[in-house]
Amino acid sequence: SHVQHSNGLRGVVTKSGGAGFTDVTTKTGYVATVHRQDLTKITLTAEEAALCDRFRLQPHEWLQAQMDGAICAVYEGREFGNCFATKTGRPQRMFTVESNGDVRSALC
After folding, report:
1. pTM, rounded to two decimals
2. What is the separation of C-alpha 18 from the centre of its chain, rounded to a whole number of angstroms?
3. Are strands 78-81 and 83-85 parallel, antiparallel or unpaired?
4. Which of 41, 44, 62, 64 has the fewest Cβ atoms within 10 angstroms?
């Protein structure tokens, strides 16, 4: 089913787990595990729903989406996800996934 989380995350339920948790696959391919009670049923457009299909991604793209959604660093009270903008506005990732599946630190 199509859902929206209370924080605005939208996607498709891909797994209903125990203890009240549900996996929601987003349009970027990231799978978020959230409390079921924080979800509201909605209707996604056909295009949005198609973007939530993780099988459209190559394995390394899927892993990159998981890392982009899961990694968060806090520095001086500011949050930085795996994908962030530098001071000059250039997009940057802390970790990148190569096409062969290797994960590399992009900051070192």
Report:
1. 0.70
2. 21
3. unpaired
4. 41
